[in-house]
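Hi Y.,

Following your request, here is the sequence exactly as I used it, all 81 residues.
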Amino acid sequence: MRRVWLTRIREAKGISRAEAAKRSRLSKAFYDQIENGTRNPSVDTAQRIAIAIGFDWTLFFTPNECESNTKRGERDEAHAG
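Below is the corresponding structure, written out as C-alpha cells. Let me know if you'd prefer a different format.
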C-alpha cells in the first residue's frame, strides 16, 4: 500500500523523491519502492529517511496512526475554509 502520508510530508517540505533518496543515502529506486509501499524499510533506513525529511521515524511502523493522521488532516483542511 502506497505511503500517502510519506508523500504528503515530503511534498509539504518541497523535497523531491530524488532529493529525499540522496539525503537518506539510498538509491532513488529503493526510496521509490519504500514510498510506493512495495518495500518496507529497516529501522535504520526508516530513521535515515525520517532525519532526511524531518518527521518521527516510528510513523513507518504505525500504519493505522499514519492513515488516521492523514485522514484527520484532510478533514481538518476541508473544514478550515
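DSSP finds five helices and no strands in the chain.

Thanks again,
Q.
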